[in-house]
Design a protein that fits this description.
Helix content is 50%, strand content 12%. By secondary structure, the protein is of the alpha/beta class. The chain has three domains: 10-74 and 121-200, Rossmann fold (3-Layer(aba) Sandwich), CATH 3.40.50.300; 83-115, no CATH class; 206-305. It has a five-stranded parallel sheet. It has a two-stranded antiparallel ribbon with strand order 3-4. It has a two-stranded antiparallel ribbon with strand order 6-7. Helix 1 (10-18) crosses helix 2 (26-38), helix 10 (206-216) packs across helix 11 (222-235) and helix 10 (206-216) packs across helix 12 (246-258). The radius of gyration is 24 Å and the shape is elongated.
Length: 306
C-alpha cells in the first residue's frame, strides 16, 4: 500500500484540511505546511474548543496515518507517557527460572528486561516504524503537566529518541508528525517552544465560523445558521468567564436542529444556554432581558447586511 504524500504547497495543505471539513485560515495552513515539510513539531496554543486537537485528527485521517494521542494531566510521568516494565510477568518469569534451577543471574536479568516485557506507551509507540508512514503524535494540553515532564520531552522533540536504561536508546527511523497543544493555563518553557514551530489558534471570524458550521452541521436551516454564528460572535464580546468556542457553537447548532428550530427566539436561547455556556455565573449574567437585547441587535445587524 502506497503512502499518501504530504502536501506540496500551502494551497494543497488548505485542500487537505478541507477534505475533512476543517476550514483553516491561510496562516494556519502556512505554518502546518512548514512543519510537515521541515519535519518540525508544531506547537499550537489557543482557548479551549477552537479546534487545536482536531488538527491532529484531520491529519491522521487525510494522510492515512495512525493517530497516537498522549493526553496530558497533572502528575503525568514516564511510566504513563513512555514505557514501563510488566512487573507481574517479570516476577512470574523469575519464579519459573528458580523452579527450573536457572541460577545464571545475568541471563535471567537479560531475559526479563527484554522487549517482550516492555509495555509501550504513546511516546515510545510514536517512534516505531509503520508501513503507512510515521504516525501523527498528538501531545494534548501540555500545559496541564509540570516542568519536569516538559524537560523530559526535550529529548523526544529534539532527536526523536527515548533512552531506556535497560535496553538503550530507541530512535525513530522517520520522525513522527508531532502536534503539541496548550490551552495556556500556564506558560510552557521557552526551551521546548524553540524546538517547535508556533501558531496561535484564535476564535474564527463570522464568515469562517459560518463555513465551519455549515460543513459540520449540514442539515441546519440557512437563517438559523446565520443567527447562531452572529449570536455567538456577539457573546464573545461580553464579559464572560469562558467564551464559547467553535466546539460549543457546533454543539448548540446541533441541539437547535434536534429541536426543529428554524430561527432563534429569546425563549429558545435561554432554554439552551447550557449547551453553549458551561459556567453558571456566565449563564446567570444572560437573563431574559439581556438575551433579548443581544438577539435584537443580532437580527438587526443581519437585516442590515442583506
Amino acid at each position: 500500500m502506497s503512502r499518501i504524500p504530504l502536501p506540496g504547497s500551502i494551497e494543497e495543505t488548505v485542500s487537505l484540511l478541507a477534505k475533512a471539513d476543517y476550514i483553516a485560515d491561510r496562516s494556519l495552513a502556512t505554518v502546518l505546511y512548514l512543519a510537515l515539510t521541515m519535519g518540525r513539531p508544531l506547537f499550537v496554543e489557543g482557548e479551549a474548543g477552537v479546534g487545536k486537537t482536531e488538527i491532529a485528527k484531520v491529519l491522521s485521517k487525510t494522510l492515512g496515518r495512525r493517530l497516537i494521542r498522549l493526553q496530558c494531566y497533572e502528575g503525568l510521568d514516564i511510566s504513563s507517557a513512555v514505557y514501563e516494565w510488566n512487573y507481574g510477568a517479570q516476577m512470574i518469569a523469575i519464579r519459573l527460572a528458580e523452579v527450573q534451577g536457572e541460577h545464571d543471574r545475568a541471563r535471567t536479568e537479560q531475559d526479563i528486561f527484554s522487549e517482550h516485557y516492555l509495555i509501550k506507551r504513546p511516546l515510545l509507540q510514536a517512534l516505531e516504524p509503520n508501513a503507512d508512514g510515521p504516525p501523527v503524535l498528538l501531545i494534548d494540553e501540555l500545559d496541564r503537566t509540570d516542568e519536569a515532564f516538559e524537560a523530559f520531552l526535550l529529548e523526544v522533540l529534539s532527536d526523536f529518541q527515548v533512552t531506556i536504561p535497560e535496553l538503550g536508546t530507541v530512535k525513530a527511523a522517520e520522525p513522527p508528525i508531532v502536534l503539541v497543544t496548550s490551552n495556556r493555563t500556564r506558560e510552557v518553557h521557552d526551551a521546548l517552544k524553540r524546538r517547535c514551530l508556533y501558531h496561535w489558534v484564535g476564535y474564527p471570524n463570522a464568515e469562517r465560523e459560518l463555513k465551519i458550521l455549515r460543513a459540520k452541521v449540514p442539515g441546519i436551516a440557512k437563517k438559523l445558521s446565520e443567527q447562531v454564528v452572529a449570536f455567538v460572535q456577539a457573546l464573545r464580546k461580553e464579559d464572560l468567564f469562558k467564551s464559547p468556542g467553535v466546539a460549543e457553537t457546533l454543539d448548540w447548532a446541533g441541539a437547535l436542529t434536534e429541536l426543529d428550530a428554524v430561527a432563534l427566539d429569546p425563549a429558545m436561547v435561554s432554554d439552551t444556554l447550557g449547551v453553549l455556556l458551561k459556567y453558571q455565573d456566565d449563564i446567570a449574567r444572560l437573563d431574559t432581558s439581556k438575551v433579548k437585547a443581544l438577539l435584537d441587535d443580532v437580527k438587526s445587524d443581519l437585516r442590515a447586511a442583506e
